[in-house]
């Protein structure tokens, strides 16, 4: 849809408001499937504002266990790297699946619109080089909200995500689709703890 040019700082402030303001531990069950395989398991994500995330994941009986540290849009380390990049090939989509929008890069072109009426959705578009990221935040069920995201590279859809957020704006469930695969990564939140404290060891590799 046609979007009007928007202020970069306004987009940055809006995106920052979607992130938790304190250390947050999110535990969830996940499923991944593509044309050739299907996996499931449990995971825990530790989020430290404004831009740090550690994910620890494992399949049944701790099979396929791994971890990764993400800062902003960059995977600082992943152990084992192949497993994490196979499970989560798009870092910004992982953030969006947790209900968090990463701010536009410096120099990105920003567009936006507020859809009036009962829907009252807010839509943003960040154009960064050959990448275009669209975000749509709209009312959901039970007083919550829905955050949808789409990533296109050179006009081709790379990934789409949809996160159901509760009344606290915390994720309840999400899915991330990769049409080219095709593949889907989905998760259901078990608990969200905003009273935790992380020590420095949290950000180190497992070994």
Structural summary, described in words:
- This protein is mainly beta.
- The chain has one domain (4-203): Clam (outer membrane lipoprotein receptor (LolB), chain A).
- The chain has three helices and 13 strands.
- The protein has helices at 8-17, 81-87, 91-97; strands at 4-5, 24-34, 38-48, 52-58, 66-71, 74-79, 109-114, 122-128, 131-139, 145-153, 156-165, 171-178, 183-193.
- It has a 13-stranded antiparallel β-sheet, with helices on one face.
- A hairpin with a 5-residue loop joins β11 and β12.
- The longest helix has 10 residues, at 8-17.
- The radius of gyration is 17 Å and the shape is globular.
What are the main properties of this structure?
207 residues, mainly beta, outer membrane lipoprotein receptor (LolB), chain A, 13 strands, single chain
Query: What is the domain tally?
Result: 1
* Termini gap: 48 Å
Number of helices, counting only DSSP H or I runs of 4 residues or more:
3
Strand content of the residues, in percent?
over 45%
What is the approximate shape? globular
CATH topology: outer membrane lipoprotein receptor (LolB), chain A
User: Radius of gyration, rounded?
Assistant: 17 Å
Summarize the structure.
The protein has three helices and 13 strands; from the N terminus they run βαβββββααβββββββ.
Write the layout of secondary structure elements.
Blueprint: E1 4-5, H1 8-17, E2 24-34, E3 38-48, E4 52-58, E5 66-71, E6 74-79, H2 81-87, H3 91-97, E7 109-114, E8 122-128, E9 131-139, E10 145-153, E11 156-165, E12 171-178, E13 183-193
Antiparallel strand pairs: 1-7, 2-3, 2-13, 3-4, 4-5, 5-6, 7-8, 8-9, 9-10, 10-11, 11-12, 12-13
